[in-house]
Amino acid sequence: MTTDTPTIDNTRHELYRREIAAGEARCAVFRRTYDAPIEDVWDACTDPARLRRWYAPVEGDLTLGGSFTQGAFGPGKVTRCEAPRLLTVALGGVEPASDEIELRLTANPDGGTTLEFEHATTRDTHEINGQIFDAVYCMGGGYGPRLITLDQHLRGELPATVNAGELHLLAEYRPAIDASMAALAELIEADRNR
Prior knowledge:
The protein is of the alpha+beta class. 31% of the residues lie in helices and 35% in strands. The protein is built from 5 helices and 10 strands. It has an 8-stranded antiparallel β-sheet. A two-stranded antiparallel sheet has the order 9-10. Helix 4 packs across helix 5. The longest helix has 21 residues. The protein is globular. The termini are far apart. The mean pLDDT is 92.
């Protein structure tokens, strides 16, 4: 199995700032169009059994006010839920949350769906295995490959052997990680020079 360059290149990246409950946040947006109806993409993003296949081992309640866990990504709480177009979650288990994820789905005229996956963070850095990285830069390693596994899942092409919690260990997803982190590095540099 490979994740070829055209598949990787189908994800668009954007970085901007906006206020969240914890203060001014940098917002990384990952935009991708899927060849699936909006209801199917929504279900894949809100059903813990389906999330477990392509995203992470999510457990809990993904309805408005519900709390959940997502493996190494930590706990979260649903703060907005407008099926099948908008889902906002606060991450970290404290208030105000330093991080928020918002999923915005748009049905396209051709029957496909555009997903905007926004992660807003007030944190400057993130520690991984004792190393300190820019908090936004790290998002490329998490979301870059997962937006590809979502595509594979929606098409019924995600191998059963793939463990969504270990995508960073699988060579076939390394190009997606590298491409997404490189795209974010350019946006971070532009943000520093604004």
